[in-house]
Write a structure and sequence with these properties.
Catalytic activity: (R)-mevalonate + 2 NAD(+) + CoA = (3S)-3-hydroxy-3-methylglutaryl-CoA + 2 NADH + 2 H(+)
CATH superfamily of the largest domain: 3-hydroxy-3-methylglutaryl-coenzyme A Reductase, Chain A, domain 2
GO biological process, one term: coenzyme A metabolic process
CATH topology of the largest domain: 3-hydroxy-3-methylglutaryl-coenzyme A Reductase, Chain A, domain 2
Family: Belongs to the HMG-CoA reductase family.
Bound molecules: NADPH dihydro-nicotinamide-adenine-dinucleotide phosphate
Structural class: alpha+beta
Enzyme class: oxidoreductase
Strand order of the largest sheet: 3-8-10-9
Shape: globular
Protein name: 3-hydroxy-3-methylglutaryl coenzyme A reductase
């Protein structure tokens, strides 16, 4: 209701949310093969976010307790200045891979000399994206040698602006359209042509800062010590891949939740982000926290190829309603929000980890799902949850014993 009053939802969307409407069997059947039923996940709202000077409510779909609470908490910490988020999106990368190339320089020179024809062919392969102001922007060339077999590959990177679509199908259609021309120019058969999910040409950077004296802090550490510990933890995630994987998993807690809520492709985003985390030759944490003067500053840069149209987004009414809720119409606006969510999620995790640890807050939020797991129903769920929160140990055995006592 509040969301409708604030014009973040129309009547249809409100009815859709209130009635928890499933997609129609036709839509479900159109999306996947061998469809038998639908699988639901809870959706919640992350609050307190101010991104690029705009207040923003962020729908998140996740099965994990504490994710939304942590994001909202972190957003509040940075609410004075909010998050600044900026995209640097040139386009998606489509690869055409030529194997077993004997004279790579000659092949590249030939392709370079025919770039104008390649661009014209690309435009003919997908005229509607050109009409929208997108399409093939430029071409990069890479030579890659396999030291084991001695084989040399020449790979073309077609940088394609897909506007507000994530663009996988657009890119693949253009690549297929251009492939015969590449074959005739090089007299070679490409090994394959497919988009790359390591989309370094679609990056977004989010930053935030807070005065160290304003850090909420219930720990035994001083505020400055807490900030220094956050910086040290961030630095450590650059050094140790074992820690970096978990550091980045925490970031993805928030990112995936918004990706799913908006009908985007979480596998594509995950693949791109983890490849980006390894771009320096070692898998590293994606954030950077520093102290300057009396401020704690955070920054994250991520490759994010997202859509506000196309794929499942245009089919799922829920995804469209969630984009409306965020008041987002363009893909770059969505990327800006998602990068800020990732940074907020990381701050919440680091702050908890270097002070009281995450388990206290996490387990307290886990109590209600544990109550359901052991069979509590109706009012029992709330009673058991409350008892579990104050218990010395929270596990299945304890929960079962408590439930038995409630039922006596
Ligand atoms: P679509 O094939 O649905 O293409 C989007 C279409 O939306 C465009 O062709 C365009 O058609 C239309 N459109 C309307 N408004 C706009 C706008 N403002 N900007 C751009 N396009 C607009 O989806 P994508 O090409 O985005 O592909 C995404 C899907 O591909 C996802 O489902 C993903 O899971 C899947 N996929 C992912 C792969 C990967 O990541 N490796 C591989 C293969 C598929 P028109 O101009 O004609 O109106």
């Amino acid at each position: 209701m509040i969301l409708k009053e604030q014009h973040l939802m129309d009547d249809t969307e409100l009815a859709y949310f209130e009635n928890n409407t499933q997609m129609t069997p036709e839509v479900a059947d159109a999306l996947i093969e061998n469809q038998i039923t639908q699988f639901t996940l809870p959706e919640g709202l992350a609050l307190n976010f101010k991104i690029n000077q705009r207040d923003c409510i962020i729908p998140m779909v996740t099965e994990e307790p504490s994710v939304i609470a942590a994001a909202s908490h972190a957003a509040k910490v940075f609410s004075e200045e909010g998050f600044t988020s900026k995209t640097n999106i040139i386009g998606m990368i489509g690869q055409i891979i030529l194997p077993d190339v004997c004279q790579p320089e000659e092949i590249i020179d030939k392709l370079k000399a025919n770039e104008e024809t390649i661009k014209q062919t690309a435009a003919l392969a997908h005229p509607s994206i050109v009409k929208r102001g997108g399409g093939l922007q430029n071409i990069d060339y890479r030579t890659i040698s396999d030291s084991e077999t001695g084989m040399v590959f020449v790979t073309l990177h077609l940088i394609i602006d897909t506007k507000d679509a994530m663009g996988a199908n657009i890119v693949n259609t253009i690549l297929e359209g251009v492939k015969p021309l590449i074959e005739s120019l090089t007299m070679m058969t490409p090994l394959m042509s497919i988009l790359s999910n390591f989309n370094t040409t679609s990056c977004v950077t989010a930053t935030c800062q807070v005065k160290i004296e304003k850090l909420p802090n219930k720990s035994a550490f001083s505020n400055l010590e807490l900030a220094e510990r956050i910086v040290a933890a961030d630095r450590y995630a650059k050094l140790d891949p074992y820690r970096a994987a978990t550091h980045n998993k925490g970031i993805m807690n928030g990112i995936d939740a918004v990706i799913i809520a908006t009908g985007n492709d979480p596998r594509a985003v995950e693949a791109g982000i983890h490849a980006y985390a390894s771009r320096n030759g070692q898998y590293q944490g994606l954030t950077s926290w520093t102290i300057k003067d009396d401020m704690l500053k955070g920054e994250i840069t991520l490759p994010l190829a997202l859509g506000t149209v196309g794929g499942a987004i245009s089919v799922l009414p829920h995804a469209k309603a969630n984009l409306n809720l965020m008041q987002v119409t363009h893909a770059d606006e969505l990327a800006e929000i998602i990068a800020a969510v990732g940074l907020a999620q990381n701050f919440a995790a680091l702050k908890a980890l270097v002070s009281e640890g995450i388990q206290k807050g996490h387990m307290s939020l886990h109590a209600s799902s544990l109550a359901i797991q052991v069979g509590a129903v109706g009012e029992e769920i709330e009673r058991l949850t409350e008892q579990l929160k104050t218990a010395e140990k929270m596990n299945r055995q304890v929960a079962l014993e408590m439930l038995a006592r409630i039922r006596k």
